[in-house]
C-alpha cells in the first residue's frame, strides 16, 4: 500500500466514524422530542447503536490501520534495501565485465607476442640451419662424437662415501690395464679422511674397487693415480702437446653434475700457459675434474683439473651415462677457460708411481 492509498484509507475510516456518531446523536434528539410531545403513544422506533461500542470499533479500526501502516513502512524499507542490493550487484557485474574484457585484451596481446616470438625462433633456426649453428663443421662434430664414444669406455666415475651420503667425486680414466689417472685433489679427500670407501664405475655400470696409488705433492701438478684389481674395458693412449695449434678442436669426457655422467664436451685449444698448462675453451664444471682431454685422433693431451663450480648434492642411485651427444656449451654457463695438466707431466708422474 503506497502513501496515497494509506491516506485514502484513513480518510474513509474517519468519515465512517463521523457518520456513525452523527447518526447516534440525531436518533437521540428525535426520541427526546417525541417523548416531550406525547407520553401516551407507544414508541415504534427500533433500538439505536450504542455509541461506546461504535467508538470501540473505531478505535480497533484505527489500531489496525496503524499496524498495517507500520508493516507497509517495513516492507517499503526492505524493498528499498533490495533495490540498493540489486543496483550494487549490477555495478559489480559491469566491473567484472570490464575486467574480463581487459583480461581478454591482455591475453590476446600475450598470444600475439608469443606468436611473434615463435616466428622469430623459427627464423633464427632457419638462419642457423643455413649458416651453421655450431663452432665446428658437421664433419668435425661427427668425428668428435665417434671419438667421444670410444673415450667414454675408458672413463670411470669415482664415487666416495661422505659423512651423510655417497656421491660422484670426480672423473678418472684408464691409462693401462689396472691404473686410473685422475686429479690429486680428488684422491686427497681419501687421504685426509674427508671421504672413504672409494668405488669406480665403468660405462656399462660395472662397479670396481680402487685404492690410492699415488699423489703428487700438494704444491705440485694436480695429478693422482688410483689402482684397481679389475681389468680396464679400454685404455687411452698418451699424445703430445707440442703440435697443438690455436683453434684446434679438443674433446673432453667426464661427469659434470649439472649435466650428467660420461658427458662429451667439444671445445677449442687456446694455448699452453702457466708452465705448460693446456688451456681450452671447453664446457666444464665441477665433476669434470680428472677428465681426459683428447684430440680428434683419440690421444690424450691433458687431464682437466680446474674451472667452474657447482653444488654437489646427494645421489640416490649409481651413476648412469647420459645419451652420447656433443656439448659445446653447458646450459646457463658462459664459455670459460678450462685448465688441464699436460700429458707429458702426467706421464712423468705415472712412471714414478709404477
Key attributes of the depicted protein:
14 strands, Thrombin, subunit H, about 350 residues, alpha+beta, 7-stranded antiparallel β-sheet, elongated
Report on this structure.
The chain has 354 residues and is of the alpha+beta class. The protein has a domain at 145-353: Thrombin, subunit H, CATH 2.40.10.120. It is 42% helix and 23% strand. The chain contains five helices and 14 strands. It has helices at residues 3-37, 51-131, 138-152, 184-191, 343-353, and strands at 155-161, 166-176, 179-182, 196-201, 207-209, 211-215, 224-227, 249-254, 263-273, 277-281, 292-294, 300-306, 326-327, 337-342. The strands form two sheets. The chain has a seven-stranded antiparallel beta sheet, sandwiched between helices. It has a six-stranded antiparallel barrel with strand order 8-9-10-14-12-11. A hairpin with a 2-residue loop joins strand 2 and strand 3 (179-182). Helix 1 (3-37) packs antiparallel against helix 2. The longest helix is centred in the first third of the chain and has 81 residues, at 51-131. The termini are far apart.
Number of helices: 5
Unreliable runs? 24-46, 308-315
Counted beta strands: 14
**Averaged pLDDT:** 83
Describe the main β-sheet briefly: 7 strands, antiparallel
- Give the % helix: 40-55%
Question: Rg, please?
Answer: 52 Å
CATH class of the domain at 145-353: Mainly Beta
* CATH topology category name of the domain at 145-353: Thrombin, subunit H
Distance N terminus to C terminus?
A: 115 Å
Classify the secondary structure makeup into a structural class: alpha+beta
Which term fits the overall shape? elongated
Architecture (CATH level 2) name of the domain at 145-353: Beta Barrel
* Order of helix and strand elements from N to C terminus: HHHEEEHEEEEEEEEEEEH
Strand order of the biggest β-sheet = 5-4-1-2-3-7-6
Amino acid at each position: 500500500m503506497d502513501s496515497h492509498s494509506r491516506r485514502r484509507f484513513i480518510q474513509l475510516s474517519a468519515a465512517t466514524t463521523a457518520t456513525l456518531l452523527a447518526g447516534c446523536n440525531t436518533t437521540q434528539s428525535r426520541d427526546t422530542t417525541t417523548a416531550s410531545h406525547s407520553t401516551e403513544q407507544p414508541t415504534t422506533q427500533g433500538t439505536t447503536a450504542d455509541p461506546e461500542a461504535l467508538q470501540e470499533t473505531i478505535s480497533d479500526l484505527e489500531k489496525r490501520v496503524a499496524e498495517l501502516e507500520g508493516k507497509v513502512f517495513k516492507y517499503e524499507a526492505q524493498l528499498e534495501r533490495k533495490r540498493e542490493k540489486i543496483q550494487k550487484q549490477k555495478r559489480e557485474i559491469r566491473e567484472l565485465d570490464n575486467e574480463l574484457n581487459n583480461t581478454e585484451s591482455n591475453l590476446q596481446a600475450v598470444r600475439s607476442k608469443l606468436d611473434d616470438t615463435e616466428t622469430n625462433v623459427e627464423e633464427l633456426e632457419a638462419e642457423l640451419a643455413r649458416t651453421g649453428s655450431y663452432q665446428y663443421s658437421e664433419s668435425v662434430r661427427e668425428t668428435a662424437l665417434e671419438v667421444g664414444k670410444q673415450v667414454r669406455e675408458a672413463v670411470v666415475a669415482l664415487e666416495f662415501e661422505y659423512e651423510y651420503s655417497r656421491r660422484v667425486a670426480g672423473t678418472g680414466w684408464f691409462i693401462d690395464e689396472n691404473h686410473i689417472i685422475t686429479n690429486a685433489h680428488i684422491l686427497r679427500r681419501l687421504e685426509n679422511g674427508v671421504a672413504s670407501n672409494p668405488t669406480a664405475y665403468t660405462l656399462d655400470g660395472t662397479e670396481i674397487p680402487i685404492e690410492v696409488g699415488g699423489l703428487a705433492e700438494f704444491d705440485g701438478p694436480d695429478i693422482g693415480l688410483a689402482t684397481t684389481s679389475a681389468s680396464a674395458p679400454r685404455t687411452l693412449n698418451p699424445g703430445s702437446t707440442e703440435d697443438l695449434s690455436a683453434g684446434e678442436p679438443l674433446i673432453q669426457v667426464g661427469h659434470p653434475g649439472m649435466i650428467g655422467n660420461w658427458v662429451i664436451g667439444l671445445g677449442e685449444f687456446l694455448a699452453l700457459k702457466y708452465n705448460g698448462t693446456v688451456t681450452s675453451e671447453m664446457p666444464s664444471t665441477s665433476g669434470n675434474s680428472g677428465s681426459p682431454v683428447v684430440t680428434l685422433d683419440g690421444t690424450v693431451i691433458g687431464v682437466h683439473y680446474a674451472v667452474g663450480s657447482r653444488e654437489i648434492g646427494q645421489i640416490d642411485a649409481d651413476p648412469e651415462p647420459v645419451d652420447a651427444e656433443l656439448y659445446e656449451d653447458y646450459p646457463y654457463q658462459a664459455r670459460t677457460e678450462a685448465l688441464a695438466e699436460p700429458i707429458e707431466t702426467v706421464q712423468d708422474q705415472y712412471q714414478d708411481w709404477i
